[in-house]
């Protein structure tokens, strides 16, 4: 049964990957040169979907929260930034090679996949015990113990099918490059492996210029880079990716209250964009990062299992303290509100609650969740209909204007409607092929509404609007189109749920 489930999962993912390429969502990067592993380009539909996800996240963070503001820090940062953050010394993954296949794997991922199989087989107790043992070994940096655990659990190489493993070694994930115009004058800098440090080094800049009071947050969307040796599952794990992070600065001692608040808030956000609650879950970290005193992942049930889409971490005062010590610049906040509460005025380094989501993983989650196949009856025939059921606010294209024919003045009328609505919505105008084929094409890219312009339109200024999900059609005046579409696709419908 488990093998059948795994085959089904692989088939579902392959179908989604194929669909993403065929309809302009995601392309392999540099494909004409046979591409690069774990690097992808977003096509004409993909870039619209990804931008909608990012814009919605940004509005939810900065518009709904008066105490959260934005930032756009540089990718290149002073090398000491990464010394202070611990990335130079400890940003590693435990890697293991199979001697027969010559393939390299992340040791922790191999164990996690075995644990996931145990859980799928109904053996939750064994799954939890295996993850706990792995967490203990990694925490103790017992790499020999990790290798022994892999062998004891009979974890085989997916390619060779053997357990002929090398020792486990740590591999640093940062990309480095040289800066300077003269060879002998160059120095090593790094492509940032995360966006968070750009927020930390600007903590006081934002706090002072914005007159921000703790608690407050700084949000940022930006590219990050990691030299992932094991990159697979489409865009889930890439070497170049985009993060959407918010660092929320709080008084020491209040961090767990805010940790729980943001943990709940972020899960509700995913549900608000149309992700079923049954496909989301929390996963508490067995092994905490060196900067954290609490950490949880929000996981989504992809075709390849439950995987992390967002992390919420209580980072304590680690980052600001480290930057203060290495830069010799004070990172303290003067809290004059303490005096109003009967406490002495105080300088302190704030604690930090982090929410960190991958834009690419949220894109993949949205695409997987939207991909639908259903049986429909047309006349006497039963056929399979494939469509993308995006939340209308996230859909790349909001509506398609489709003249019934290419003559009798219908294209001119349809163009008039298109030109009026294009200022408010991302639209498509199409007049090629039968109306049925055009409906199908719009279903395949997830367009919520198709607007058919026919001969009756010329008589009474009404059009037929087809709903993507139900395939039902309603007749309405052209004058009502803007309000009708806007009600469904406006971010307001999501923001109101979250407010």
TrEMBL record:
Keyword Nucleotide-binding: yes
Enzyme class at the top of the EC tree: ligase
Occurrences of domain Aminoacyl-transfer RNA synthetases class-II family profile (ranges): 130-392
Binding site for ATP: 226-228, 236-241, 308-309, 358-361
Pfam families (UniProt xref): HGTP_anticodon (PF03129), tRNA-synt_2b (PF00587)
Residues involved in substrate binding: 106, 194, 241-245, 354-358
Keywords noted in UniProt: Aminoacyl-tRNA synthetase, ATP-binding, Cytoplasm, Ligase, Nucleotide-binding, Protein biosynthesis
Gene Ontology biological-process entries: diadenosine tetraphosphate biosynthetic process; glycyl-tRNA aminoacylation
PANTHER family: DNA POLYMERASE SUBUNIT GAMMA-2, MITOCHONDRIAL, GLYCYL-TRNA SYNTHETASE/DNA POLYMERASE SUBUNIT GAMMA-2
Family label: Belongs to the class-II aminoacyl-tRNA synthetase family.
Name of protein: Glycine--tRNA ligase
Organism expressing this protein natively: Pontibacter arcticus
Biological classification of the source: Bacteria, Pseudomonadati, Bacteroidota, Cytophagia, Cytophagales
Gene encoding the protein: glyQS
